[in-house]
Design goal:
alpha+beta, 19% strand, 129 residues, Structural Genomics Hypothetical 15.5 Kd Protein In mrcA-pckA Intergenic Region, Chain A, 3 helices, five-stranded mixed sheet
Length: 129
C-alpha cells in the first residue's frame, strides 16, 4: 500500500462523496457519486458503493492510487466547506418557505366559502325507484 496523506475534516461525520469533492480527489460531486457507485472507492480496505457513507476520524480512503487518512480538526474550516454549509442553509430556508407557502395556500382554498349556489331540495329531480 502506498504512503498516505492526512486530510483534516472540520465536521464529523462527513458523507463520502462530499469528502472526495473537498479533498480534490474528484472534480465534483457528480463525479464522486459516479466513482462510488462504480465501486472505485475503498474505505478501510473495503469497496464501498454507498454515496452517503459516513466517514469519521481514522478512516482510510483509497481512490485511483491515492490514499488519505481522515483526521478530525474542528478548528480548520476550508472556504469550500463554509460555502457548502452556507448554501445548504439557504436551500433549506428556501424549501421551508416554499413548504409553508404551499400549506398556507392549500388552507386558504379549504377555508374559502364556496361560490356555487346551494341547490335546493325542491329543485332536484326525484330519485327513480
Amino acid at each position: 500500500m502506498s504512503e498516505h496523506s492526512t486530510f483534516d475534516i472540520c465536521v464529523e461525520p462527513i458523507e463520502l462523496y462530499k469528502l472526495l469533492k473537498i479533498s480534490n480527489m474528484v472534480g465534483g460531486g457528480g463525479e464522486a457519486k459516479t466513482m462510488i457507485s462504480e465501486g472505485n472507492i475503498s474505505v478501510n480496505n473495503k469497496v464501498i458503493v454507498q454515496k452517503r457513507k459516513k466517514i469519521r476520524h481514522g478512516d482510510v480512503i483509497e481512490f485511483n492510487g491515492k490514499t488519505i487518512k481522515i483526521a478530525y480538526n474542528p478548528g480548520k474550516k476550508s472556504a469550500e466547506f463554509i460555502n457548502t454549509v452556507v448554501s445548504a442553509n439557504k436551500n433549506a430556508k428556501k424549501k421551508k418557505r416554499a413548504k409553508s407557502k404551499a400549506s398556507a395556500a392549500s388552507s386558504e382554498t379549504n377555508t374559502k366559502p364556496s361560490t356555487k349556489p346551494a341547490v335546493e331540495a325542491s329543485k332536484r329531480k326525484p330519485a327513480s325507484v
